Amino acid sequence: MEALYTKLYDKYNALKKKKLSELDEINEDQEVKFLNYVSAAEELIQHLRDENDRLCTKLNDLRSEVASVRCNNDERCTEYQNLLTEENQKNKKLFEEVERLQKLLQDGHSYNLKNSRSENLQLNVHESSQDITGAESQGSVRRRTRKRSRVEAWTGAGSVSSPGNHQYDTLIVESAKISSKEACLHEELCKDQQSESCMGIVDLSGVGGAKNDTCSSNCPFQALIEYLIGMKLSAVNQTEGICISALHQSSDYAFSLTWVKKAAGEEPELVYRVSTLGTFERIAPEWMRSDLMFSMSMCPIFFERIARVIKLHR
């Protein structure tokens, strides 16, 4: 029996060792796999952490870039709003001025009639003054001798009766009035000659031919103005007033500005009329196509608008 027990015990120990060895092998395999899993998980976690850090850095960079772009856009928006406000104010002032001048344009014909009548009256006065001054040199001796004879006659009669003294005083007053009228006519004639000489300088395209061409080529003021506005200028005397024609050579855009005379103490006005739009036919704004009347104080804004249109469509 003991031998049987011993044999069974040995067999049990052998099975037990075998079982334990198998379990150890399984545990070792599981441990190796677990370690591999742990190392792989740690590597993956580290990779994800690195990727997260990279994405966070990129996100921060994008946020800072968006903030800078937004700041620049806000500044540009503010600047554009200010420019838009200024432009709207200028347009409002210009529209108010245009409305005011359009109302005044209705009275332009009456002003032109008044100006033409006044010019005719001035011409008549100038003609009469020329006749008087022409006859003055011939009849001055006669008038003086007549005055002397009248004075001597009245002085001779004055010693006889008192009414002669009264007539003598009347004669002196009348002679003084005549001399004052002659002086006024002579002064108007001088003014007329001076204005004609000035008009000879201003009139660049009237009846004068080569003389006017020489004046325009030698006029530094005209050359300076043409250089400043980039247009060729010429002036013509019309019944309405002095008309200035402007031509932009590269685009064939041409217009005229007529000087409208006003009463004394009032600011003169200009009437804008387009002659041809040239290459600006399709792109010209509405105000360039219509007739306008504006004051001299609006000239800088008017030429600024024209220069802006020319620069935008070169």
UniProtKB/TrEMBL annotation:
Keywords: Coiled coil
UniProt keyword rRNA-binding present: no
A single GO BP: developmental process involved in reproduction
Signal peptide positions on this chain: none
Domain of life of the source: Eukaryota
Biased composition (Polar residues): 128-139
All copies of domain DUF7806, residue ranges: 217-311
Name this polypeptide is given: DUF7806 domain-containing protein
